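To: structure desk
From: M.T.
Subject: fold request, one chain
Message: Could you run this one when you get a chance? Sequence is below, nothing fancy, just the single chain.
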Amino acid sequence: MTVNDDVFTDWKNREEIAESMIPIIGRLHRERDVTVLLYSRSLVNKSVVSILKTHRFARQIAGEELSVTETLPFLQALTTLDLGPSQIDLGMLATTYRADSRGLSVEQFTAEAVAGATGANKFERRESPRDVVLYGFGRIGRLVARLLIEKAGSGNGLRLRAIVVRGGGDQDLVKRASLLRRDSIHGQFQGTITVDEANSTIIANGTAIKVIYANDPSEIDYTVYGIRDAILIDNTGKWRDREGLSNHLRPGIEKVVLTAPGKGDVPNIVHGVNHDTIKPDEQILSCASCTTNAIVPPLKAMDDEYGVLRGHVETVHSFTNDQNLLDNYHKADRRGRSAPLNMVITETGAASAVAKALPDLKAKITGSSIRVPVPDVSIAILNLQLSRETNREEVLEYLRNVSLTSSLKRQIDFTTAPDAVSNDFIGSRHASIVDAGATKVEGDNAILYLWYDNEFGYSCQVIRVVQHVSGVEYPTYPVPAI
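Reply: Done. Structure tokens follow.
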């Protein structure tokens, strides 16, 4: 047998193992509300090839490819346990088991590592999902909708009940459903979508979503539609202060989450950093901006380890709908110029928003932004003066570990790809991705290049905040080391 034959046979064997993992992962998700991860990447509803590719990613921490032959026994061990709602990371299980010297079997080690997820725990299975309403159905609204529909598979957690929009004329419902079904950047919706025009309803993967037409929040009584104690996600950005957002607190709505920076005393939340500061009785909060979500987690990581004395962030940001397709009047300076034809210098509130998310950070952070002619994925260049000297290798090793084993691993990703470009990060579920190749460190100065999908990555952060305030953000096992 030749080397090529050996490689092909090994690939086919791994394909067969990955295929056998799919129904196990599906049953754990549907029947026990357990999401199986591999280094913070969900394996639920993934194809054979996707599962194998996700395993290859694990080489960054294991030093060699983590094979499905190594993770399958841990997955099988999970089926023997009385698991409650949780997220369980096979990658962490496998690599921590490698380092364990006690001679435990896979079954014994798994039971010990996920002990908090077994039996009754504080995240008891809900009798019914938490209702969610989307107010506005633009680019962020549609991506949040996709994520909510995707996460409805377990029958618990969050359920998208309604979308509120202004009437758009003939075929309005059909056109909105079509925009949910097809996206020029993020591709086809993974599933089926049908339209019930008689009942003003979009049915996506079995989820019935009522489309409510209204020009103002005061027009709606959500209880008429059977909606109770719902989380409303405002994607319009029309209201950003407490007074304006309070208009959403109509019958059937318990809390309001804004997908834009909040003003005044509205808490600006970056999941992974300050979500645990949300007061139980807080009814109105903001998920800040996509750029704030991109820079705050790595900024916190760097401050925790090295101390940050001051910093500047320059964002090179993809164009957005608030710019003009062709030159035309705009109330903001420069944004009236054609977005797909120009680089446009503009302001960013991300730097000033850092203080709201990281009040303990004493460093002054300044910022500016340039909009560029790409439709999605941006990059933030974070230039930091540290409180002690270090070197590039140390910083990269630290950030690599943060991205794989820390409590920020869902926010911070890490890439060593030598030819990475913006399109490679479309669909990333992380708040930002550290580009190792571009990182510069000299003495007490560190410059980090942080890619981020300002649409999808941000939408994932929004969903995490909504899960947290809804009481359905399940714990992850094994518990992160740092």
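Reply (cont.): The two ends are 46 Å apart (CA to CA). Let me know if you need anything else for the meeting.
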